[in-house]
Amino acid sequence: MGAEVVVEGLTKSFGKQAIWRDVTLTLPPGEVSVLLGPSGTGKSVFLKSMIGLLKPERGKCVINGVDICSCSERKLYEIRKLFGVLFQDGALFGSMNLYDNVAFPLREHTKRSESEIKRIVLEKMEMVGLLGAESKLPGEISGGMRKRAGLARALVLDPEIILCDEPDSGLDPVRTAYLSQLLIDLNAQIDATILIVTHNINVARTVPDNLGMLFRRELVMFGPREVLLTSDEPAVEQFLNGRRIGPIGMSEEKDTATMAAEEAARAAGHHDGSPEEDVRGVVPQMQPSPGLPVRKGDRRRKDRVMRILHNLPAPAQQGIVESLSDSDRQRYGLQRQPAPVGRPDDTRPLGPGAQRPNHALSQESVANLPRSAWQPPPESSPQAPQPRPGDG
Amino acid sequence: MTSTRTQAGFPGVGMLRETGRLFALGLDVVRGFFQRPFQVREFIQQCWFIASVTIMPTALVAVPFGAVIALQLGSLVTQFGAESFMGAASVLAVIQQAAPLVTALLVAGAGGSAICADIGARTIREEIDAMEVLGVSAVQRLVVPRVLASMLVAVLLNGLVSVVGVLGGYFFNVVLQGGTPGAYLASFNALAQLPDLWISELKALIFGFIAGVVAAYRGLNPPPGPKGVGEAVNQSVVITFLLLFFVNFVLTTIYLTIVPAKGS
Ligand SMILES: Nc1ncnc2c1ncn2[C@@H]1O[C@H](COP(=O)(O)OP(=O)(O)O)[C@@H](O)[C@H]1O
Ligand SMILES: [Mg+2]
């Protein structure tokens, strides 16, 4: 199972320019998370801080009990072996061809024979659809290919944590869909913890288990995808719908004058070309390709989310309950009820039937959950206690 | 909070911090000399590369350098009536001062700028970050072989400049100024001694180290933005020149103090 990443109160600035402050979030083990944010909000800086390439002023980033921000150089190199990182432009070594690039981590960190290395490299190259391009130099291929090659290199050591910086930028929608599917399939196969940083709405809606957004030097929210996807937060709503009306401007922050002028123009009937449609709301999540095992992270996440369900906003609750399959409903002791319309603005409290999960998921009922395929993790973490189906 | 600490400070604190980091990198590199595995291939490639960009200009600079010294000394020495020391003076000047400095200028100007541009481009493309994340130290992998290569090439170039410079001096003195070959060669031994050659090579070694470390440091920390690498290369050459002339002064002073001049 992938490692858990706990980020606490992380604050980073360059000189006088504050990038973000007090970012606190937990990447649950083996789950897929997406961090959204307008360009220039420091998403890449956040990823680099998580792997110790940049030193934040305050805060912690704990993985397997080691704080990346304060541990020794030696420990840092050790813990980095758990990571597979895809940088924004692939970050391939310009002097090596694609084969040597992908083989690099294997040659550095393992004592495998060249034939074994060849097998692994070709397998990963096939995975990202680059078979046949092994002898090309990074300078000779398109940005999308560089990105996929970078992903192949990141995967070659079977990482426990995969960080992807904008895997979709520079890719067409079809390739983006393939890449998203690849990440989900990977998660199903090796149960790695995945964090994707992006500003692609489609990826954000369909791929992750957990969704967060950075804006105005803060983490606006982070939690189960349903929460952000149904949020009423103006910045979130604007971002998800790709509108100009809202708090996000061309520069990092809009001043109130611009905001008022835009609002007035809209009231006067000026159509600014922003999509009218509200794309918020919970859409079905991307599933692993047929033939692959079910995602263990998905199971764990459902248990976790159902346990905190009563703390979530009503629209999110509704989205979660509706997305449950029949067997899930049985498992969590929910009865099928006439499905209410899942509009995000529908803040109607849940009906009496839907209230059941609150008490149905008291400590005992969680413990009584039917045995699922996954085994409880060997080490429990105090920050995010996992439901333990095996305990009962 | 740390941010207040980084803002606060006196004029020049930024320069001190940079100097500190430069020294830290220098220490890391020295430590890296003894760490295994040693990147043999990278080292050989870099030696070849640095040599290929420096040998030709060095040879071309060395000939006129030797000539200028010969011409200058030639007329001076004749006025004193000390023609018999012509060879000795020219050898001393070339080996002790001219050779290491010409070497330094070329290793910094041609070799160092190439190293800085190479590493700077890798930094901008995030290759260095990627390498660090893959658990491979960029200092060990990239910087150490380059610094070592720059040192080795500096030592070899220094030998080259010495030979070419002395030959150039000989040519100008004997052929153009009508000096006697016998006297020129005979006086070699009069003032020059073997330690002169050692200090010359030692200087070249140190200059090569400084040029390599400064180039790598600027390459690893380029100013942000697309112009960053260009600026970094420019700064690395200027900083190296300043450092080299200063270090040369210090080394010369120490040498002249501890090694007595021949015949005194
Ligand atoms: N090494 C650096 N030094 C100074 N400022 C930086 C550095 N790296 C990033 N920044 C600044 O941090 C901000 C966020 O950058 P980035 O993380 O790349 O944004 P994005 O969310 O688009 O990935 C930018 O304003 C950028 O200027
Ligand atoms: Mg970015």
TrEMBL record, chain A:
Provide ranges: composition bias, Pro residues: 375-392
Annotated stretches, region: Disordered: 247-392
Q: Cross-referenced SUPFAM superfamilies, in alphabetical order?
A: P-loop containing nucleoside triphosphate hydrolases
Q: Name one GO molecular function term.
A: ATP binding
Q: What PROSITE patterns does this protein's entry cite?
A: ABC_TRANSPORTER_1, ABC_TRANSPORTER_2
Q: Which UniProt keywords apply?
A: ATP-binding, Nucleotide-binding, Transport
User: Which positions fall inside the ABC transporter domain?
Assistant: 5-241
Give residue spans, biased composition: Basic and acidic residues: 263-280
Q: Which Pfam families match?
A: ABC_tran
InterPro entries tied to this protein: AAA+_ATPase (IPR003593), ABC_transporter-like_ATP-bd (IPR003439), ABC_transporter-like_CS (IPR017871), P-loop_NTPase (IPR027417)
Q: This protein is called what?
A: Phospholipid/cholesterol/gamma-HCH transport system ATP-binding protein
Q: Please tell me the species this chain comes from.
A: Tamaricihabitans halophyticus
Automatic annotation (TrEMBL), chain B:
Tell me the leader sequence span.
none
Does this UniProt record's set of keywords contain Membrane?
Answer: yes
The protein's matches in Pfam families, at most eight in alphabetical order, are given as:
MlaE
Superkingdom of the source species:
Bacteria
Keywords (A to Z) from UniProt: Membrane, Transmembrane, Transmembrane helix
Provide a GO CC annotation, any one: ATP-binding cassette (ABC) transporter complex
Tell me one GO molecular function of this protein: phospholipid transporter activity
Give me the segments passing through the membrane: 48-73, 85-108, 147-172, 197-217, 237-258
PANTHER family in alphabetical order: ABC TRANSPORTER PERMEASE PROTEIN-RELATED, PROTEIN TRIGALACTOSYLDIACYLGLYCEROL 1, CHLOROPLASTIC
Q: What is this protein called?
A: Phospholipid/cholesterol/gamma-HCH transport system permease protein
Q: Lineage of the native species?
A: Bacteria, Bacillati, Actinomycetota, Actinomycetes, Pseudonocardiales
